[in-house]
Task: inverse folding
């Protein structure tokens, strides 16, 4: 099994993973813009991670048609996440795009929430190159690498068990099947929120 990076627990860092379906084939979810605005106002020490959305769905659909390997599809899906990050930066200019730990630290030092541009780090991540590993697992991998205090997964679906465990989320299809493996090395708090609950929570954070 590939090793997952270990890191010292970060000073209150929260990784906030936004589900790819918030920017799916049906367009932008109506709650996405206000959620991004709330996260930008709430600022540091948050790190926003976008899913691959419709772009990753396109990769999945093209893989059998083009006879692509798992490695190629995995790398293309990560590049779909990178493109989603570009789109999120356009929708929420208050977020600070950041490709690595130094850029994330600089954003937080300026009081801003960071927006992860994943290509540089995620393409080198020691995780399986398969659809078992989606953007949820890569967000968890980043949380482990940063030593984050919390990982929050924001979903369009109803969340029955907001505090997990991750194994139950995977069994219900809420997250990918590799997430429970990554989170074994995560020392922080793990939770999942519906977008409505997330918007209420981060709007309150921004106002405090």
Result:
């Amino acid at each position: 099994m590939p090793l997952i990076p270990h890191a010292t627990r970060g000073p209150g860092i929260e990784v906030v993973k936004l589900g790819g379906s918030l920017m799916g084939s049906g367009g932008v979810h109506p709650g996405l813009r206000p959620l991004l605005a709330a996260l930008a106002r709430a600022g540091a020490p948050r790190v926003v991670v976008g899913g691959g959305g419709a772009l990753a769905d396109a990769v999945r659909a093209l893989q059998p048609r083009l006879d692509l390997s798992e490695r190629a599809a995995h790398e293309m899906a990560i590049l779909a996440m990178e493109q989603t990050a570009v789109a999120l930066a356009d929708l929420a200019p208050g977020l600070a795009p950041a490709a690595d730990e130094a850029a994330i630290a600089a954003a937080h030092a300026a009081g801003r929430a960071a927006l992860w541009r994943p290509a540089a780090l995620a393409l080198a991540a020691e995780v399986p190159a398969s659809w078992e590993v989606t953007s949820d697992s890569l967000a968890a991998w980043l949380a482990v690498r940063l030593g984050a205090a919390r990982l929050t997964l924001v979903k369009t679906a109803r969340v029955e068990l907001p505090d997990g465990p991750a194994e139950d989320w995977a069994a219900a299809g809420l997250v990918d099947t590799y997430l429970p493996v990554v989170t074994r090395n995560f020392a922080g708090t793990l939770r999942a929120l519906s977008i409505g609950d997330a918007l209420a929570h981060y709007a309150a954070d921004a106002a405090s």
